[in-house]
Amino acid sequence: MAEIHLIGRAASPGLAIGPVTMLTAAVVRRAASDDPAQEAAALRAAIEGARAEIAEQIKTIQGEVADILEFQVAMLEDDALADAAYEVISEGITAHHAWRLALDVEIAGYRAAEDEYFRARAADIVDIRDRVLAHLSGVDTVARITGGSIVAADDITPSAFLAADWSHGGAIALAGGSPSSHVAMLARARGAPMVVGLGPLSWNGQPPALALVDGDAGSVIFDPEPETRRLFEQRMAAANAALAAAESARLAPAYTADGRRIAVLLNIAAPEDLAGLDPAICDGIGLVRTEFLFETSLGLPDEDTQYAVYRRILDWAQGRPVTIRTLDAGGDKPIKGLTIDGESNPFLGLRGIRLSLARPEVFRVQLRALSRAAVHGVLKVMLPMIAVPGEFDRAGVMLDAEFAALRAEGTACARPPLGIMIEVPAAALCAEDFDAAFYSIGSNDLTQYTMAAARDIGSVADLNDAGHPAVLTLIARTVEAARKLDVEVSLCGDAAADTRLTKALLATGLTSLSVAPVAVARLKAAIAKVGS
Ligand code: PEP
Ligand code: MG
């Protein structure tokens, strides 16, 4: 059989080889009754069963994964999701059929959405559909993925991903999918290589037995010839040896080959991301995305809740600097009850600092919690999506006021230094005009605004290139301004973890990069090669 080469999009880095597991969800139907009342009751019980099952799972996990499951619980708690199903049940359709019909309409709606964020959520709705069907049928439909196998499927649900053990290798090869889906985020966090958008996985006759997945290049080879396999295994062995060497050097500070000390900081989305990590792996925390606090079904977080979370992070850092970003809602991060629905272009709308300034009653709570946490370590506060100095100044006045109010009340507090993210080309070009204590370059947004190529639209992914000379020039421009004004500058966008760009980024004069914990070893190894 000739080997099959497929090219897709890289969604999670790394190389993997393994037997192919084709994912198909087999659902066995329960014996349905012809009584609509009984069918409606069965569906209600199945929805509740699925909801309770997920709620139990949430108790055992944390961070990003828990957020994903929270989303599913919120969907299942929303009565509107099942309304259409109950309606057709009352017309005599079985619970199983009605639920599938209703959810398939939902899924089609998500898949057809213009926004890739919503398209990527389709896999969650498939997950919800199959979980409830499993409860209706009394059958566990979550596919069993054996450790180390290459999962080939149209798409994969978060449940199916989480049910598998990725600690012994394995990878994912999808006909569809998206690099910004929840599963892609999970794959990156667990270190499982993943390629999406391979197109139809159709075979003449037998499905493939073995596959090679290149999560760096975004390609998959099914049923490789012996020579192809040998060369791939050679590459894998070299990459694994390099990674093992890098892992062992993870706790050491990073230096370039020519002796330049580079600070490596962490990006985290929640304190749980730090569980089990030795603070010695980093020089501090460069970005805490606080959106997770606002994305729960419990409503906006109060001051004490926020303070407790910020304090936990500062305690972990043991005196290392911690940069916490104020809420960056809007754009690709809608938050129910806070962000504006129906903006024609949310990335150019009321997001980040613009939203915080428009909702001072919400922003002030966060500024108070941050000022209280600031007594427990070296806290820096960073404002997202700053475009003009007026925004920075207004936020500074509000921070001063909250700090003064806390002091007047006799509450322990400190006024943290206030810095800005450089994500808007206007801010990069006029960085000197801000009275900021530090800059942190958000290359994800800076790239999309410079290249006019949205970060979540797959069809313009090639243009969304942080290595483009225009983006690198804006980064260099910002570093130059920081040097002139003697303020610190770091880069915390995804470009920091893209080791193909390490040399170019350090050539701009940057000496501080902030990445997710899983990317630290790889980045330190790449830094060590610069200047050799
Ligand atoms: C960025 O834009 O590079 C950044 C770090 O912020 P986020 O990805 O959260 O928008
Ligand atoms: Mg950003």
TrEMBL record:
Residue ranges of every copy of the Phosphotransferase system enzyme I N-terminal domain listed in the record: 8-121
GO molecular function: kinase activity; metal ion binding; phosphoenolpyruvate-protein phosphotransferase activity
Protein localization: Cytoplasm
Gene Ontology annotations of biological process type: phosphoenolpyruvate-dependent sugar phosphotransferase system
InterPro entries in UniProt: PEP-util_enz_mobile_dom, PEP-utilizing_PTS_enzyme, PEP_util_C, Phosphohistidine_dom_sf, PTS_EI, PTS_EI-like, PTS_EIN, PtsI_HPr-bd_sf
Protein keywords: Cytoplasm, Kinase, Magnesium, Metal-binding, Phosphotransferase system, Pyruvate, Sugar transport, Transferase, Transport
Catalytic activity: L-histidyl-[protein] + phosphoenolpyruvate = N(pros)-phospho-L-histidyl-[protein] + pyruvate
Sites where the protein binds phosphoenolpyruvate: R289, R325, N444, D445, R455
Binding annotation for Mg(2+): E423, D445
Cofactor (UniProt): Mg(2+)
PEP-utilising enzyme mobile domain sequence ranges: 147-218
Enzyme type, top EC level: transferase
Domain PEP-utilising enzyme C-terminal, residue spans: 248-530
Pfam families to which the protein is assigned, alphabetical: PEP-utilisers_N, PEP-utilizers, PEP-utilizers_C
GO cellular component, one term: cytoplasm
Enzyme Commission no: 2.7.3.9
Gene3D superfamilies: Phosphoenolpyruvate-binding domains, Phosphohistidine domain, PtsI, HPr-binding domain
Keyword Glycoprotein found: no
Active site (UniProt): H182, C492
UniProt function note: General (non sugar-specific) component of the phosphoenolpyruvate-dependent sugar phosphotransferase system (sugar PTS). This major carbohydrate active-transport system catalyzes the phosphorylation of incoming sugar substrates concomitantly with their translocation across the cell membrane. Enzyme I transfers the phosphoryl group from phosphoenolpyruvate (PEP) to the phosphoryl carrier protein (HPr).
Family listed: Belongs to the PEP-utilizing enzyme family.
PANTHER family, sorted: PHOSPHOENOLPYRUVATE-PROTEIN PHOSPHOTRANSFERASE
Protein name (record): Phosphoenolpyruvate-protein phosphotransferase
Organism per entry: Bradyrhizobium retamae
